[in-house]
TrEMBL record:
SUPFAM superfamilies: Thioesterase/thiol ester dehydrase-isomerase (SSF54637). GO terms for biological process: fatty acid biosynthetic process; lipid A biosynthetic process. InterPro entries: FabA_FabZ (IPR013114), FabZ (IPR010084), HotDog_dom_sf (IPR029069). It is found in: Cytoplasm. One of its GO terms (cellular component) is membrane. Keywords: Cytoplasm, Lipid A biosynthesis, Lipid biosynthesis, Lipid metabolism, Lyase. This is 3-hydroxyacyl-[acyl-carrier-protein] dehydratase FabZ. Its EC number is 4.2.1.59. Involved in unsaturated fatty acids biosynthesis. Catalyzes the dehydration of short chain beta-hydroxyacyl-ACPs and long chain saturated and unsaturated beta-hydroxyacyl-ACPs.
């Protein structure tokens, strides 16, 4: 799935869109996506000017966006202007290594459970095969007026 398909499925736009490409998707089971981390990211201006490091919350958001793409695939539906996926919870978040400009962040997210519009995912983000961040994510899909 290239950036054009991602833009059709996620409501996020620059500078918050954090998925550049989907490498693999197994509907209802797992997704593997990537984020090319560049020095041009706006958060690097303040985090940290002397040693740019991707904020942990941005890594979690990148995994959540990959999870949202998986949730839409699991439903077999396309998002519309009246649907949005929100974070409902984050458990067990761990940060193992810094992510810096020039890194390619690979997010692997698996769907653990889906019930009554609540989705639970296990996400792992890595760089060069080394875990940078992992967490359990809960999201919910809601209709908006």
């Amino acid at each position: 799935m290239d950036i054009h398909e991602i833009l059709k499925k996620l409501p996020h736009r620059y500078p918050i869109l954090l998925v550049d490409r989907v490498l693999e998707v197994e509907e209802g089971k797992r997704i593997k996506a990537l984020k090319n981390v560049t020095i041009n990211e706006p958060f690097f201006m303040g985090h940290f000017p002397h040693r740019p490091v991707m904020p942990g919350v941005m890594m979690l958001e990148a995994m959540a966006q990959a999870a949202a793409l998986l949730a839409f695939a699991a439903q077999g539906s396309q998002p519309d202007d009246k649907s949005v996926i929100y974070f409902a919870g984050i458990d067990g978040a761990r940060f193992k290594r810094p992510v810096e400009p020039g890194d390619q962040l690979i997010m692997e997210v698996t769907l653990e459970r889906a019930k009554a519009g609540i989705y639970k995912f296990k996400g792992v983000a890595s760089v060069d095969g080394n875990v940078a961040c992992e967490a359990e994510l809960m999201c919910t899909m809601r209709k908006i007026a």
